[in-house]
From TrEMBL:
One GO term describing the cellular component: cytoplasm
Function recorded in the entry: Catalyzes the reversible reaction in which hydroxymethyl group from 5,10-methylenetetrahydrofolate is transferred onto alpha-ketoisovalerate to form ketopantoate.
Keyword Magnesium: yes
Keywords carried by this UniProt record: Cytoplasm, Magnesium, Metal-binding, Methyltransferase, Pantothenate biosynthesis, Transferase
InterPro entries, per the entry: Pantoate_hydroxy_MeTrfase, Pyrv/PenolPyrv_kinase-like_dom, Pyrv_kinase-like_dom_sf
Binding site for Mg(2+): D49, D88, E118
EC number, UniProt record: 2.1.2.11
Name used for this protein in its record: 3-methyl-2-oxobutanoate hydroxymethyltransferase
């Protein structure tokens, strides 16, 4: 099936899912890489707060500021015309609906078509608040990196029955609050597949197995760069098979669309 060449819009996400087309997402932080992502089959570019670790050199995403996301979103938007740009709320910037709205307006004005926030609970009110004000939202559940201190590290989530049940409930609640997309990170593949089957909105996995509606990786991981951080099991270096940056992105996009990535070696049981 041929991929749509027109610029991605939020309604096209549900359409892709209905047509059984996998969504290809990568993180991006600057205009030059955004252009290469755009030209080589990447549907969605996430200006993730992972930039705190892979661009700024911190040990976690927690030091990232709203200004950083605005700056990098604007750069990505200048480089990518076709891919849908998603800006990530940094730690502490989505604590209240009003605060989140102020940041989200800046993200949209910088070129994002959607914003991403981690968690459920009190964040559900924020999701509703933003969606009612015309700001599309992507949820993010599972191994949410901003919860690193509560989790005691970057640990796979949802392994125990109670935790799995909570994740299933949270996923439905995030969709019910109005989110149009949901990232599932660091959860057992079978659980992510169950959540996806029950979800009214598309899911994007990272360390969540092949049963999701799409996949995302951190760009630096896809290119096999040593960022000074431990590489989780789900990371794959596509530069080795792609032979160039553009080739690596194409190899990843092909592998996601064909269902070859992630395989069992790059997923949690
Ligand atoms: O910040 C980020 O890059 C993310 C992805 C890893 C999902 O949240």
């Amino acid at each position: 099936m041929s991929e749509p060449q027109k610029p991605w819009t939020v309604p096209m996400l549900a359409q892709a899912r209905a047509e059984g087309r996998k969504l290809v997402m990568l993180t991006g932080y600057d205009a030059s890489f955004a252009r290469v992502l755009d030209d080589n089959g990447c549907d969605l570019i996430l200006v993730g707060d992972s930039l705190g670790m892979v661009v700024q050199g911190h040990d976690s995403t927690l030091p990232v500021r709203v200004d950083d996301i605005v700056y990098h979103t604007a750069a990505v938007a200048r480089g990518a015309k076709r891919a849908l740009k998603i800006a990530d709320f940094p730690f502490g910037s989505d604590g209240s609906s009003l605060e989140a709205h102020a940041a989200a307006v800046r993200f949209v004005q910088a070129g994002a078509s959607m914003v991403k926030l981690e968690g459920a609970g009190h964040k559900l009110d924020t999701i509703r608040y933003l969606v009612e004000r015309e700001i599309p939202v992507c949820g993010h559940l599972g191994l949410t990196p901003q919860s690193v201190h509560r989790f005691g590290g970057f640990k796979v989530q949802g392994r125990e029955d109670a935790a799995a049940a909570r994740l299933r409930e949270d996923a439905l609640a995030v969709a019910e609050a109005g989110a149009a997309l949901l990232v599932l990170e660091g959860v057992p593949a079978a659980l992510a597949a169950q959540i996806t089957a029950a979800s009214p909105i598309p899911t994007i996995g990272i360390g969540a197995g092949a049963g999701c509606d799409g996949q995302v990786l951190v760009l630096h991981d896809l290119l096999g760069l040593d960022t000074g951080h431990r590489k989780p099991k789900f990371v794959k270096d596509f530069l080795a098979e792609g032979g160039s940056v553009a080739g690596a992105i194409r190899a990843y996009a092909d592998a996601v669309r064909s269902g070859r990535f992630p395989d069992a070696d790059h997923a949690y049981a």
